[in-house]
């Protein structure tokens, strides 16, 4: 919200010597965030000049310039010769002259310079060059603004260009501060300065008549709320839309971020910024009959002021007349009844619309506006009558109109604000500051609330402009804000005993920290993929699998929720490689969505947004969500050891990812086994299944070259993905560290001849089972196929280490244990010892 200081001073006593930073500091104290300081970027001398004469001089390029003699006042050198390319002024006109040494917005410094055969001793300025609008085809004539001043007068002050605005961030719950009225009140709260409410007027001044027909047809209101609870109409006749907007009004609107569009529209915008009440003006002569506020009918269309024809939704709230829709209520008016330079009679609308309805309409049509921005945050329901009269008065004063007292508006629902019970000890208990009763009451009364005592508590009726004050907690926050946040002590709360992260949360954190410590970089990605990605990476076979399609995807090319983390890692790798980062070790810990076949997920029922859903509604929404599993996935590509002097580069490969898998297993407190497997997206013979005991928890392998190249990854790409929820559930409650034996180990090797299609992990598991408790570790050291081994078979060599916790093993004991394992392998798989 941009707040010109001259405008702010109309309603609150801001010291004349207060700087913009002083004003911002005061507003920060009451909870606003400072954004910026805005001015016109002008530096004098910029003065009023009188055009004494000029000579038109055609140029060889086809352009005609004017060599002008301009009186800028005795204090500024009297008559100066100035070259001007515009032709919309006459001798005797008063214009704005920027003299050498001046600076225009840009910055654009002005200096005397030779051009078109003359030395131009300054420049005659247009409105755009002064920052007053977009008009730059001609120079600014003071008569067009209704101004006159002697030559040499400071034009910056005359046009209100010496004003400055402060910009503050207004949070969505404080829509009342999207007005000069609201910000002035807050400045008063912060400083104690006297506040004058511009909305305070005698009811006799603003009470409308009943002659203009207005109706609200909302027989089945959405969410139990009427679309419009108030609609005030005023008529001003015989206006002159060609009259100039006062310079001070143009300057204030410009600083507030609003373009000047003519006196009639400028007045409606001015009152909206001043009071926070959006206003719309209609050309009364282009209206057909009375006004009806109703919901749209399916198939209706409306051409809005931006020239676009919009297909309306049955939830849209409309302003209509006898011809049909003439405006999207609270969002934007229609082109058929807009005010133009031909308008002579104006119907002024000031209404109160349902906040949720306006917000949904603005988003549905992608049509944010200054009006919808205020309506969706809530406007003061007691201001429309005042705002409509304020607009009418300004049109009478500056557009030469006459107020028609016979026409008016209507109130369709009584403004009722329910009182809030505030226990006496609640504020201190919540905020942690021992406020006195007087401090609490004075703070609430300062913001405009009515406070009465009742049974040891207070009953607080919030002001009409504060729809965000709905319970005792929001009232307590207001007390803390008004009394000052600096009074709240900085004390860390003590958590109750037994609270903290769950075991699953601790496990996920250990896994993430372990991978990061191992050199992997976490790269969260969007969970939206194509159906082809889900089919390829979301199942082992690559066949079509059920996936959840979003009704409103961010990207229409990727409308499905992911079944695997690998597509996201491939996209991240592609993005990094395209920017020259080719050695990558990435991981992601995120959610995948695994719908059950034959089950339909999602819901077409949207519960009301203004109230919390009940337990049954929440349960139904939970059932509409597919099962979600937390997975962890890693990806490596490029080099694990970069080339450097004396060091040959080492390509990242399967061993690196297997190390990452072991890191995840260690952090989870389990032991993961790897067995050869198949997966559609992985290279045959270079893919494995990850298991904990007999439970499969994930997979690992090298991505198919065709799949990698589809992501523009031309080197080797190796990935692994693990169901982390499942893995942590297999870890049990506690990991017990094994005791270390101080006795020496006995090591032996064994080579077994087995079928070539038998997994080495199955043979290893059998050796572990058969060798008994003395076996400390077993490791595959060789896989041989060739001479000396029968066709269709292979020789697997394992290194076994035996150790006893209480004695030194003999060679015979170790051999006996080894042979027990070999015997079990022979029994299960027909394994034989290789000679």
Structure description:
With 835 residues, this protein is an alpha+beta fold. The protein folds into 6 domains: 67 residues, 2-Layer Sandwich (Phenylalanyl-tRNA Synthetase, Chain B, domain 1), CATH 3.30.56.10; 113 residues, OB fold (Dihydrolipoamide Acetyltransferase, E2P) (Beta Barrel), CATH 2.40.50.140; 197 residues, Phenylalanyl-trna Synthetase, Chain B, domain 3 (Phenylalanyl-tRNA Synthetase, Chain B, domain 3); 68 residues, Phenylalanyl-tRNA Synthetase, Chain B, domain 1; 217 residues, Bira Bifunctional Protein, Domain 2 (BirA Bifunctional Protein, domain 2, 2-Layer Sandwich); 88 residues, Ferrodoxin-fold anticodon-binding domain (Alpha-Beta Plaits, 2-Layer Sandwich). The protein is built from 22 helices and 42 strands. The strands form 12 sheets. Strands 28-31-32-38-37-36-35 form a 7-stranded mixed β-sheet, with helices on both faces. Strand 26 and strand 27 form a beta hairpin. The longest helix is centred in the last third of the chain and has 19 residues. The mean pLDDT is 90.
What is the element layout, followed by pairings?
Elements: E1 2-4, H1 5-8, H2 20-29, E2 33-39, E3 46-58, E4 64-71, E5 79-84, E6 94-98, E7 103-104, E8 108-109, E9 113-115, E10 118-120, E11 123-124, H3 155-158, E12 164-169, H4 180-191, H5 203-206, E13 214-217, E14 228-237, H6 247-255, H7 263-275, E15 280-283, E16 291-295, E17 301-303, E18 309-311, E19 317-321, E20 324-328, E21 332-333, E22 346-353, H8 355-364, H9 370-375, H10 384-399, E23 402-404, E24 410-411, E25 420-423, H11 426-431, H12 437-446, E26 450-454, E27 457-461, H13 472-483, H14 503-517, E28 521-522, E29 528-529, H15 531-537, E30 560-561, H16 566-578, E31 584-593, H17 615-623, E32 628-637, E33 639-641, E34 650-651, H18 654-668, E35 673-676, E36 682-692, E37 695-703, H19 705-710, E38 717-723, H20 724-729, E39 746-755, H21 760-771, E40 775-784, E41 793-802, H22 811-829, E42 832-833
Parallel strand pairs: 13-16, 28-31
Antiparallel strand pairs: 1-12, 2-12, 3-4, 3-6, 4-5, 6-11, 7-8, 9-10, 14-22, 14-23, 14-24, 15-22, 16-19, 17-18, 19-20, 20-21, 25-27, 26-27, 29-30, 31-32, 32-38, 33-34, 35-36, 36-37, 37-38, 39-41, 39-42, 40-41
Helix pairs in contact: 2-4, 6-7, 7-10, 12-13, 14-18, 21-22
């Amino acid at each position: 919200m941009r707040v010109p200081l001259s405008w702010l001073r109309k309603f609150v006593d801001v010291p004349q010597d207060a700087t913009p930073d002083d004003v911002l500091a005061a507003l920060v104290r009451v909870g606003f965030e400072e954004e910026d300081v805005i001015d016109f970027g002008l530096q004098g001398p910029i003065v009023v000049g009188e055009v004494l004469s000029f000579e038109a001089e055609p140029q060889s390029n086809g352009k005609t310039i004017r060599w002008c003699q301009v009186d800028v006042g005795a204090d500024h050198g009297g008559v100066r010769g100035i070259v001007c390319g515009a032709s919309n002024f006459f001798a005797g006109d008063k214009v704005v002259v920027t003299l050498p040494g001046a600076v225009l917005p840009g910055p654009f410094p002005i200096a005397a310079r030779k051009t078109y055969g003359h030395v131009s001793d300054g420049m005659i300025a247009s409105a755009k060059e002064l920052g007053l609008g977009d008009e730059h085809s001609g120079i600014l004539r003071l008569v067009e603004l209704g101004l006159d001043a002697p030559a040499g007068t400071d034009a910056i002050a005359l046009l209100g260009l010496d004003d400055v605005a402060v910009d503050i961030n207004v949070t969505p719950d404080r829509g009342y501060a999207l007005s000069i009225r609201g910000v002035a009140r807050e400045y008063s709260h912060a400083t104690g300065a006297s506040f004058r409410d511009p909305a305070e007027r005698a009811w006799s001044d603003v009470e409308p008549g009943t002659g203009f027909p207005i109706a609200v047809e909302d027989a089945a209101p959405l969410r139990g709320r009427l679309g419009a609870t108030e609609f005030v109409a005023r008529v001003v006749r015989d206006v002159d839309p060609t009259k100039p907007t006062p310079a001070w009004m143009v300057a204030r609107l410009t600083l507030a971020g609003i373009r000047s569009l003519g006196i009639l529209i400028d007045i409606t915008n001015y009152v909206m910024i001043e009071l926070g009440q959006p206003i719309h003006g209609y050309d009364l002569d282009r209206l057909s009959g009375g006004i009806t506020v109703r919901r749209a009918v399916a198939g209706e269309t409306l051409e809005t002021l931006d020239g676009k024809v919009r297909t309306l939704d049955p939830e849209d709230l409309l302003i209509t007349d006898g011809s049909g829709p003439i405006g999207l209520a609270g969002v934007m008016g229609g082109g058929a009844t807009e005010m133009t330079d031909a308008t002579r009679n104006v119907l002024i609308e000031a209404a109160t619309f349902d906040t949720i309805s306006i917000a949904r309409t603005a988003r549905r049509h992608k049509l944010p506006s200054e009006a919808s921005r205020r309506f969706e945050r809530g406007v003061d329901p007691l201001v429309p009558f005042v705002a409509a009269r304020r607009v009418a008065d300004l049109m009478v004063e500056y557009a030469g109109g006459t107020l028609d007292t016979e026409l008016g508006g209507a109130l369709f629902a009584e403004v009722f604000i329910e009182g809030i019970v505030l226990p006496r000890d609640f504020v201190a208990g919540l905020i942690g500051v021992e406020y006195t009763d007087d401090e609490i009451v004075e703070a609430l009364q300062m913001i405009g609330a009515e406070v009465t005592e009742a049974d040891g508590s207070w009953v607080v009726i919030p002001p009409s402009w504060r729809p965000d004050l709905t319970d005792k907690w929001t009232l307590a926050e207001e007390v803390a804000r008004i009394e000052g946040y600096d009074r709240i002590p900085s004390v860390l709360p003590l958590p109750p005993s037994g609270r903290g992260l769950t075991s699953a949360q601790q496990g996920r954190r250990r896994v993430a920290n372990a991978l990061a410590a191992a050199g992997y970089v976490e790269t969260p990605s969007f969970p939206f993929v194509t159906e082809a990605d889900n089919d390829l990476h979301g199942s082992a076979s690559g066949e079509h699998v059920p996936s959840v399609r979003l009704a409103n995807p961010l990207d229409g090319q990727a409308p499905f929720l992911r079944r695997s983390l690998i597509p996201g890692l491939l996209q991240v790798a592609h993005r990094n490689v395209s920017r020259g980062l080719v050695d990558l070790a990435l991981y992601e810990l995120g959610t995948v969505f695994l719908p059950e076949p034959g089950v339909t997920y999602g819901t077409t029922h949207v519960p009301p947004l203004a109230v919390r859903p009940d337990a049954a509604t929440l349960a139904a929404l939970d059932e509409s969500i597919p099962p979600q599993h937390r997975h962890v996935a890693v990806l490596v590509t490029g080099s694990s050891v970069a080339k450097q002097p004396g060091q040959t580069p080492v390509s990242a490969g399967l061993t690196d990812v297997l190390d990452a898998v072991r890191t995840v297993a260690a952090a989870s407190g389990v032991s993961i086994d790897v067995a050869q497997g198949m997966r559609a997206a992985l290279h045959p013979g270079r893919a494995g299944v990850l298991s904990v005991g007999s439970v499969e928890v994930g997979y690992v392998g090298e991505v198919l070259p065709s799949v990698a190249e589809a992501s523009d990854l031309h080197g080797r790409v190796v990935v692994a993905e693990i169901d982390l929820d499942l893995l942590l559930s297999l870890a049990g409650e506690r990991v017990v560290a094994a005791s270390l034996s101080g006795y020496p180990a006995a090591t032996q090797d064994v080579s077994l001849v087995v079928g070539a299609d038998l997994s080495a992990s199955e043979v290893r598991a059998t050796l572990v089972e058969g060798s008994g408790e003395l076996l400390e570790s077993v490791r595959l050291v060789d896989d041989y196929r060739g001479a000396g081994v029968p066709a269709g078979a292979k020789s697997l060599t394992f290194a076994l280490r035996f150790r006893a916790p209480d004695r030194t093993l003999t060679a015979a004991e170790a051999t006996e244990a080894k042979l027990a394992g070999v015997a079990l392998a022979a029994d299960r798989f027909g394994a034989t010892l290789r000679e």
